Amino acid sequence: MAKLDDCLKAIADIIGRVEGINQAPEYMTDKTLSGVYAMPYAVSGTGRQEPINVLKGLHDIGLYVIMPRVDLVSCLKRLLPLYEPVMAALENNPTLLDTCSTFGDITYTFGYAINVGTPAAPAYVVGWNFTVQNVKIQDETSLDN
User: Any idea of the CA torsion for 26, 138, 103, 110, to the nearest 10 degrees?
Assistant: First the structure.
């Protein structure tokens, strides 16, 4: 059975194949990357042991599809057309490469001037923030520790 980490890596793999996305690292980075890049991350969730030795989790998983904000018009021309391909890539993989049982709705926001740098060296990006809701993951594990 898969783990949350496996699911995040699967989303990076799925979205990394979308035309127009230059990079999709498996883990979030605090560095601003070049071009359009995607980064999945865990937002929130719940977990419980049911049955014994099976951890059942419902997770909301975020996905940034962003790029450095240099010229806003150029950014919008590259980013806005990615809505449909990103949604299709996720919807066409209902088990997220066999890392989950199901997932619910996909919501999004679009924005700019998100600070991904440090207070001493701010870096601004613009783009999508998708949330894949209620990603159901079951993992055989021991919660005895």
Answer: -30
Number of folded domains in the chain?
1
| Residue 23 included in any domain | yes
Place of tokens 């199901």: 102
Q: From CA 40, how far away is CA 11, in angstroms rounded?
A: 7
For the chain, what is the mean pLDDT? 88
CA distance 124 to 122: 7
Residue 139 neighbours by CB under 8 Å, 6+ apart: 1, 2, 3, 54, 55, 57
| 115: confidence class by pLDDT, cuts 50, 70, 90 | low
Q: How many angstroms separate the Cα of 84 from the Cα of each of 40, 41, 80?
A: 17, 20, 9
Domain around 48:
4-140
pTM above 0.85, yes or no: yes
The structure tokens 């926001």 sit at 109
CB atoms within 10 A of CB 46: 10
3-state secondary structure of 31: coil
Does 117 fall in a domain? yes
pLDDT at residue 52 is higher than 90: no
